[in-house]
Design goal:
Elements: E1 8-18, E2 22-31, E3 35-38, E4 49-54, E5 58-68, E6 71-76, H1 82-92
Antiparallel strand pairs: 1-2, 1-4, 2-3, 3-6, 4-5, 5-6
Length: 102
């Protein structure tokens, strides 16, 4: 797998703002500095744009780059800075055994 950034497992239910469908409830199951994956994307299609609110960085825009079954992968409009990303992971994944090594 040729991913640009390591994925960190999280359990983060969130309400996002979809540009056509309004507010949607999603479950973020992994996160990187470049994007995230949800495991309940029944109403999303490739190219859909949303705004998600994350701890530390606040509102950030993302768009769907792939879908498969009920999963979807999103890419952020901008990369999250490393120090902010570490703080987000520390908040969303408080169990240090589940965090990937840094």
């Amino acid at each position: 797998d040729m991913r640009r950034a390591a994925r960190h497992p999280v359990d983060y239910p969130v309400i996002v703002e979809h540009f056509e469908h309004g507010d949607l409830k999603l479950h973020v199951c992994n996160l990187s500095a470049h994007g995230f994956m949800v495991d309940d994307s029944h109403h999303l299609a490739r190219g859909d744009r949303i705004i998600i609110r994350l701890p530390i960085v606040g509102r950030i825009e993302a768009y769907v780059i792939w879908t498969r079954d009920s999963r979807a992968g999103f890419q952020f409009e901008r990369i999250i800075r490393l120090d902010d990303f570490i703080a987000i992971i520390d908040e969303l994944q408080p169990n240090p055994r589940l965090r990937r090594p840094r």
